[in-house]
Amino acid sequence: MKVVCCQTDIAWENKTANHTKVKALLAQAAIPKGSLVLLAEMFSTGFSMNVAAIAEGEAATSEKFLANLAREFEIYLLGGVVTATVDGRGRNEALVFSPKGKEIARYCKMQPFTRGGESANYVAGAKSVFFSCGEVLVSPFICYDLRFPELFRVAAWRKPHLITVIASWPDIRLHHWVKLLVARAIENQAYVAGVNRIGKDPQHSYSGRSLIVNPHGEIIADAGDRECVISADIDLDGLLAYRRDFPALPDMRADFVRRAE
To answer: Which conformational region is residue 92 in: left (phi greater than 0), alpha (psi within -120 to 50 degrees), or beta?
Structure first.
């Protein structure tokens, strides 16, 4: 299976402009059918605390866009959207559609970014989520989750082959992004694909560095700081052989992991 990261300069709180840009980039990339394509955190609005203005609501504009695009290109498609709760706060979610345009997974960010005001405006998710792309088991995460390895260890109990991290990770801490993606790949013996954005919003500048990292911690695709699409193949046979040859995952302390569940 091929995993694809679509790195864009997100227009602030402008869903129509961002939908148009994503569709054009994917059309130009000629992505193989059945690939898993990743879009950034809040890909259609930018990392906004204005939940009332950007939440999907009944129109579900971005959700419908993702479903239709997945169906049109016959791909698995994961993108970050915002939905509203009954108390007016948001849920920062990673939403996944199948090549038939059917929703197959919905993950809510477990670690809202307190320093950026997210925990005051968004509720925290409660658990890991998994979905399958053919034979490849995937576990999605969002941005600030990346700093909390215990979240990934709970997910690793299920032995996902691929971990995805969609983000709006600013320039000032970009070196952390790279190192943490590599660490998550090594310690969980899994492929890791992280998609970030470029450009600016009212608070921050972003330089991308969307990456795909193999289970040995080697970067096998790097988007740099430009608007682009990158991809890599998931070598499932090679991954399973590596896990058999170096069986670190079975040595995880079950009592520690289950305590965190």
So the answer is: beta
Task: Select which of 6, 41, 118, 133 is catalytic.
Answer: 41
Rounded to a whole number of angstroms, the distance between the first and last alpha carbons of the chain is 29
Axis crossing angle, helix 61-73 with helix 15-29, rounded to the nearest 10: 10
Can you tell me whether residue 245 is helix, strand or coil?
helix
Task: Give yes or no for a contact between 69 and 44, defined as CB atoms under 8 angstroms apart.
Answer: no
DSSP-based three-state secondary structure for 83:
strand
Structure tokens at 46: 């930018």
Q: Give the mean pLDDT of 232-248.
A: 98
Residue pLDDT, tens place only, 81-95: 999 998 989 999 999
**Annotated catalytic, 15?**
no
Kindly report the CATH number assigned to the domain that includes residue 183: 3.60.110.10
* Local structure of 12: helix, strand or coil: coil
Catalytic residue among 56, 109, 118, 133: 109
Alpha helices in the chain (DSSP H): 15-29, 51-54, 61-73, 118-121, 149-156, 174-188, 236-245, 254-260
Q: How confident is residue 9, by pLDDT bands cut at 50, 70 and 90?
A: very high
Cβ–Cβ < 8 Å for 40, 15: no
Pair 15, 44: CB distance under 8 Å: yes
Instruction: Note if 41 is an active site residue.
Output: yes
227 carries an active-site annotation: no
Question: Structurally, how many domains does the chain consist of?
Answer: 1
Q: Which two tokens stand for residue 7?
A: 């790195």
CA 215 to chain centroid: 17
Query: What are 61-73's pLDDT values in tens digits?
Result: 999 999 999 999 9
Count of CB atoms situated within 10 Å of the CB of 76: 26
Q: Which domain holds residue 221?
A: 2-260
- How far is the C-alpha of 234 from the C-alpha of 245, rounded, in Å? 18
